[in-house]
Structures are given as structure tokens and as C-alpha cells.
Amino acid sequence: MPNPVDPIALTADLVRCKSVTPAEGGALQLLESVLSEAGFDCTRVDRNGIANLFARWGRKGANRRFGFNGHTDVVPVGDENAWTVDPFGAEIRDGFLWGRGATDMKSGVAAFVAAACDFVADTPPDGAILIAITGDEEADALDGTTALLDWMDANGESMTHCLVGEPTSPNHMGEAMKIGRRGSMTAFFTFTGVQGHSAYPDRARNPCTAMAQLMHTLASRPLDDGTDHFDPSTLAIVTMDTGNGATNVIPAQCKATVNIRFNDSHTGADLSQWLTDTAGAVAQAAGIKIDTRIKISGESFITPPGELSDLIGRAVQAETGHTPELSTSGGTSDARFVKNHCPVVEFGLVGKTMHQVDEKVPTADITTLKSIYRRILADYFAT
From the DSSP assignment, how many helices (H) and strands (E) are in the chain? Predict the structure, then answer.
């Protein structure tokens, strides 16, 4: 029987790969080697310069095909002088493994790869295990998981259920799993009036006044009261800019941006219409022009509690003693793409230090996460 894959050592090896998005950094090459040695059929699914890896153990089209999804790209380290460790050194100290990507989410990828490799060696399942890992989650996500799913569709590959290994717990291991995510969209407004002297405002058309009015109107309206599985939707003003350094000049133009995180009582299209209509009304009243550009990063979605969440919850409780809360909090993840393919739930580590200086993960949690994923596979194929 092959030696078990050490998820801590694999996490450390991945952290040493400088895969700052969109660089591959050797991370997917490393995983392809580990998975191939365990008997997985591996295919690189690169698109537009983005590296992606698909791996399958078992027969294509098997009755049950459990999938794992994750990413190996990481955000930049920021000010390297602010770190107390080498961001890519993977130092193990005080019970933690330190480095960029240690939490988000090279440890999650290492844990599910290690669990899958050991499981197929010890208990070859009657079915297939599919692993889809992208190098484009932290950036635009245009050619990452979407490219993998497009390739799978074109090549007759599919998952019956999928687990995304993102960090999901706020404070302690096993605290929460995510059964859905809020939608996310950003609206960019450009206000164009008529420049003039601030002493003669009647001779100008002030876009700043219209900007203030529109921002107040948008921010003061409650979007909803929340739904069964989601908190109330939120709108945040994230920037207002004039670029005007003169106190005696009314500028001709200014800009503002808002970000909305919305639940399943809305669609991106409905909110876009509201934003556009509201901006149009303010523009007409102020006698200026407002150009509105909207980017929808993802719609809200929910995987109803049931077979998949119950499976994960039982495994987490067995390994940690905690029953995870069913959550929809946080930002977006690649689960927003997978949900169009099959039922998807996210479960992973505590996310406290992700994207921070001195990012770190308890080494004991990596081992526990591998055990949880291994139990999930055993229970899934046992039924």
C-alpha cells in the first residue's frame, strides 16, 4: 500500500510555489505529479494564459462522481517588510504553518488531494473522484473554474456533487459550512455637469450635488429584510471622487462607485434596473448627465439543505465534535460557477488570517481537514 500523503508537507510545498495570481508558480505541476502517482488521469486545461488542472480517478460516467474544487493562486503579499516570516518560506513554528496561501487555500487543496489519494489506494470506490483546481480564483476568474467546467462539458466529464475547499469557519474548526453565497455587483457612476466658478453656482451645473443626492438615495433605502437562509442585502458606497483641488471651481465631472451584496430575493438584472432608473431620475432633476456602468460578479444561490450538507455535517461532527452551521455569509467564491453544474457546498478551515500579513494555519487543522474529507468520501461511496 502506498505511503499516506502528508497534507502538512504538501501544504508547505504548495506555499513555496510563488503562485501569485495569475502565475502558476509550479503549484499545479506539483499537484499533477502527486495525483498521477496515485492513479488519477490528469489533464491541464489552460486557457488564455491561465493554468488549470483536471484529475479523475475511476471510470468516466460512473454512477457517482464526487468532485473537489479549489485554487492554488494567491493574492500578492503586500509589504514584504511587514511580514515576520518569508511569505513563501512555509515556516512551521508555534503549531502553525506560515505563508501566503497557507489558509486561502493551499491547505484546503492539500487536504482534499491527500484525502483522495489515500482513499482510492485503501478503498477503491465504486465510482469516480474528480478534482478541478484553478489558478484564477483571486483575480478576474474568467479562465479558471469556468474554463474547467467548459472543458468538462465538452469532454463528457461531470460531477454529481461537489465540495469547494474554501475556508468557511470564522473562529474554530468545524464551525460552519457554506450552502450558498450572496450575489455581488458593482455600479460605476460618472456625473457630468457644467464647470463654473463656485461664487456663481447658478452659471454652472454641479455634478457633485447630484452625486451626493444619488448616493444618499441609494444608501438610505433598505433593500430587503433578509430571507430564510440569507441576511439582509447590503449596499456600500466605496468611493466618491472629483479630482478637484481648487476650492473656487465647480468641477465638470465626478465619479462614484457602490457595491451591492444581495440575497436570493433579488437578481442582478432587477437591481441593475433599479440603479439605472434611480440615476436617471436624479440626472433629470439636476439637469446633468449620469453614465452608469454595472458589473455583476455573480448571482446569489443556495444549495438547499439535504443530502450533501447532511453528508458533510456528519463527517465534521464525527471528526471535530462540532455540528457546522449552514451559512451563506462572506464574499464570492468559485462555487458560484459550480452551482450551475451540480449541487455544491463549501467546507474548509478557519479563515481568520486569509489575505493578511503573516497568514498562517494551525498544522493540526490541516490534518483534521484531511480526515474530514476522507470520511466524506467513505460515507459518500458507502451509500
Answer: 9, 19
Give the integer Cα–Cα distance in Å for 103 and 210: 43
Question: Tell me, what's the pLDDT at 1?
Answer: 57
Any bridge partners for residue 298, and if so which?
A: 184
Rounded Cα gap, residues 142 and 134, in angstroms: 11
Neighbours of 109 (CB within 10 A): 26
pLDDT in tens, 217-232: 999 999 999 999 999 9
Q: What's the whole-number mean pLDDT along residues 311-326?
A: 97
Nearest to 230 by CA among 329, 296, 378: 329
> How high is the pLDDT of residue 332?
87
Identified catalytic residue from 32, 136, 137, 166: 137
Is 86 part of the annotated catalytic residue set?
no
Calpha distance 75→281 (Å, rounded) = 40
Distance (Å, rounded) from C-alpha 263 to C-alpha 184?
Answer: 9
**Active-site hit among 73, 118, 136, 157:** 73
Q: Residue 84: exposed, middle, or buried by beta-carbon count in 10 A (0-12, 13-18, 19+)?
A: exposed
Stated pTM of the model: 0.91
Q: Which three cell numbers stand for residue 126?
A: 465504486
Whether 137 is a known active-site residue: answer yes
Tell me the average pLDDT across 50-55.
98
**Long-range contacts formed by 372-375: CB under 8 A, 24+ apart:** 372/174, 372/315, 372/316, 372/319, 372/320, 372/347, 373/68, 373/111, 373/112, 373/115, 373/116, 373/163, 373/165, 373/315, 374/115, 374/118, 374/119, 375/315, 375/318, 375/319
Alpha-carbon distance of 43 to 80, in angstroms, equals 35
pLDDT tens digits, one per residue of 290-307: 999 999 999 999 999 999
Top-confidence residue, 269 or 331: 269
- What is the helix (H) or strand (E) element at residue 177, kind and residue range? strand 176-178
> Rounded to whole angstroms, how far apart are CA atoms 109 and 160?
20
CA distance 160 to 309: 14
Measured on CA atoms in the order 314, 315, 320, 324, is the torsion positive or negative? Answer: negative
Grid cell at residue 240: 466618491
